Every structure is written in C-alpha cells, then in structure tokens.
Amino acid sequence: MKKFLTKLLCGATALLAVSAAHAGAIDDAVKRGTLKVGMDPTYMPFEMTNKRGQIIGFEVDLLKAMAKSMGVKLELVSTAYDGIIPALMTNKFDMIGSGMTLTQERNLRLNFSEPFIVVGQTLLIRKELADKVKSYKDLNDPQYRLTSKIGTTGEIVARKLMSKAQYHGYDNEPEAVLDVVNGKADAFIYDAPYNVVAVNKFGNGKLEFLDKPFTYEPLAFGLKKGDYDSINYINNFLHQIHEDGTYDRIHDKWFKDTAWLKDME
C-alpha cells in the first residue's frame, strides 16, 4: 500500500509539472510581458500596413485591447498567410490573429476562440460581365478566370464551388484584384469587408461588386490544440468587450468611418 501511494504521489507530481510546463499561450504571455500574435497584414480593414509602416486595423485594435486586459505589450509577428499555421506550431508566436476563418479542416489542427465577427465571400467582377454574371454559380464555367489570395477561404471556395473555371492565386490581395482590373482575370473572390474597400481603392471604375455573401465565415483567433485555458480567457474577454461597449467602438471606427483610408498608401 505504501509503495502504491508513493507511485501515485510521484505520478501526480509529474502531472503537475507537465501542466505547469504547458500552462498555455496566455499564461506564457503574462510571464513574458508580451503577447506575440502571428498576422499577415494585408487584409483591409482587419490588418494592414499604413504609409508610415505601422500595422493597423480592426483586429489589431481588438488585440491591443486584449493585451491591455492582460497587462502586457502586444507584439505583431508579420507572417505570410500560407505559412502561418506551421509558424504557430514551431512557436514563432502565441496565437494567430489574421482574419482566419474557423473551418472544420483548420479546427482539426487548431483550437479556435469564439468568432469575433462573421463575414462571407463576395465577388469583384469585370464591369463588362455585369449582365452575364449575377452570382458565383454563373462563374462555374471553363471560359472564366478566377483569382484570390492563396491559402484563404477565397481559394477554397473557388476550387470547390467554381471548379470548372480556371484559377490562379496570388500571395497578396491587391495583386489579385488588379488582375481583374487589368482584364487578366474575370473575378476576385474574397471576404465582404475587404471587397467593400477594394472596389473603391483599386477598382478604378472597372469593377462590379456583387455584395451578397454566399458563404458563412466566422473569423476567430487560433491557438495550439489543447490550450483550453487560453481559449477560456479569450472568450471571456470577447464577452466583456461586447457588453461594455469596447467592441462597438472599435467596430465602428473601421467599418462605419472611412477616415483611416487617408492613412493608407
């Protein structure tokens, strides 16, 4: 009996040691004094680089409020979107905050917070196609050329729902949009908030915006599997800012006010 109790105590001690070693991203950030977030700053108005080289946006402000609630500094780690999950797995940062859609495929690899906003895919098409193309279904044809940003749900949707069309993706959104503006592609597929801005910023009067979303896209913060303590903290933070007015203030700054556009290149 004594030997059994000794083994039990040793096992409990080892378990506590493992738990302490894997306390979670939020605890690690608090101990470090810095919350490190992986982000590809090309997604207007969520995260983008202004003309002074600063990363700004709706999601950036949410993360600033989160870091403040933890009593730490925010460090944004600029990372290409198609490599952002591997970078998290190799400890380049604590979490992903980069306009990431919570998909089932990604959820097999990551834990996600509750969504902080829900968007949907929309279309920017060549103006000449306005009479022919009324929805994404009309683009499911070999005669059309589609584009989006590589590694995003825009690419996934293009390949899944418009598989008969030709597809060529780009590493960043503006390059893909300009492919449509310049007549090299027929449609750009992307989240509605980005396309609202892009049609005016890059369109040059040559784009038609089909603004009715045709997918359901909850955006959330991504963390390593099993980090439930951090998920719990982030979810409670999101509930708090929804109730105290912080979320509405940040949301309106980026989605109802266009003053920030003057700060862009």
UniProtKB/TrEMBL annotation:
Belongs to the bacterial solute-binding protein 3 family. GO terms for cellular component: cell envelope; membrane. One of its GO terms (molecular function) is ligand-gated monoatomic ion channel activity. This is Transporter substrate-binding domain-containing protein. The keyword ATP-binding does not apply. InterPro entries: Iontro_rcpt_C, SBP_3_CS, Solute-binding_3/MltF_N. Residues 34-257 form the Ionotropic glutamate receptor C-terminal domain. Residues 1-23 form the signal peptide. Gene3D superfamilies: Periplasmic binding protein-like II (3.40.190.10). SMART domains: PBPb (SM00062), PBPe (SM00079). It comes from Pseudomonas helleri. It comes from the Bacteria. Keywords: Signal.
